[in-house]
Amino acid sequence: MKKKSSLFKRIIHFFFVILFGFLGGFVATFFVLQMNGGNFSKNAPTSQVKTSNTNYDTVTSTTDAVKTIQNTVVSVINYQENQDDFNYYDYFTSENEDRFVDDSGLTVYSEGSGVIYKKDSKDAYLVTNNHVISGAQKIEILLSNGNKVVGELVGADTYSDLAVVKIPSENVDVVAEFANSDSLNVGEPAIAIGSPLGSEYANSVTEGIVSSLSRTVTSRNENGEIISTNAIQTDAAINPGNSGGPLINIQGQVIGINSSKITVSGDYTNSVAVEGMGFAIPSNDVVSIINQLEANGAVNRPALGISMASLNEIPTSSFSKLDIPETVLSGVVVISTQSGMPSDGILEKNDVIVAVDKETIETTSDLQSVLYKHQVNDSIEVTFYRGQKKMTETIKLTKTTEDLKKNE
What is the CATH code of the structural domain delimited by 181-296? Predict the structure, then answer.
């Protein structure tokens, strides 16, 4: 009898468990339907997605650097007469073509960037690349506040690829500061600011590092002359339109003026795509050039009167002809001297220049950079190897690069 009673109790207990489970599920379903307006769908969201109520003001050393200088960065627009073969803006459409034509019928030939570095009560001065304003019949400057003003060319220099333009100072509140580029370290942050692809993308910012120092960049100017420029190498993205804009350090100071990049290496039969190789003219070289452009409208450079090559460009098979010590691994080799020029009678073929005024010379761009910091009639102290013998001579810079052309 007890067994039957126990069995009966278990059945009753099981029945109530099932009943309460069913009722619980029914009640839960009822409340879910009420919360969803009576519409039940397995895909219906239980609540709307919202943005966070927490606000972040993300400030880094990079954002601080950009804020320091961004209002000094401008777009430089080069207007010229319309040319039949001109296709700089090959993305023209019938709707936007008029945007690139001014009242005088001139069209936008090219666009670049610049940075304002000086102002007085009347004028403000900006530096850009010579190739940005080359051939311009009108120069227009787009300021960071959106205002456009007409610029006046103060002076340009094809060898350094630098130019100075002045504008009215009434709309200019701040100017940029130049850093000492001799104090740069490989690997430190480098930030490029400018107008890649034109003023439509004005004040674009890219960041990278200083990839290398004292790179020799060889190019041809508009006269077809081969020029070698001392440059800072960076992997900060530099695109057409960034030319003339500043490369800055983490303090917001200008360490260089962006001038070029390498996109392809090799010839058309064996080319390799290249990324992250941009170049900027060091700020110390920039300051030396713009001071002369402001004062004279041109750069009157002293000349040694030598043909030269970097030692690391000389084939190893030719080293025996130089007969220099094995410890000399860099310098500038004198290929020839020009009659009547300052080096004539002092330097000789196969001399290897290793220092000027006790400053180490490793490449031709190093020699040009040091030489072009001097004025005509200055004297320099040149240290060189003639075979195994190390020598130092003083050379007076009585001639200019214009005299070189006359003697050619």
Answer: 2.40.10.10
pLDDT of the residue at 48? 87
First to last CA, the chain: 132
Can 131 be counted among the known catalytic residues? yes
CATH placement of domain 306-407: 2.30.42.10
Is 339 one of the catalytic residues?
no
173 is catalytic: no
**H-helix or E-strand spanning residue 286:** helix 283-296
Catalytic residue among 75, 110, 113, 131: 131
Note the pLDDT tens digit of each residue in 324-345.
999 999 999 999 999 999 999 9
Residue 391 CA to residue 407 CA, distance in Å, equals 28
Q: Are 129 and 259 in contact (CB under 8 A)?
A: yes
pLDDT tens-place string over residues 11-38: 566 555 555 555 555 555 555 555 555 5
Choice among 75-89, 196-210, 289-303, 315-329 with the minimum mean pLDDT: 75-89
CATH number for 61-171 (one of 3.30.1390.20, 2.40.10.10, 2.60.260.20, 3.10.450.540): it is: 2.40.10.10
Q: Choosing from 160, 181, 199, 243, which is the catalytic residue?
A: 243
> Of 161, 351, 366, 403, which one is the catalytic site residue?
161
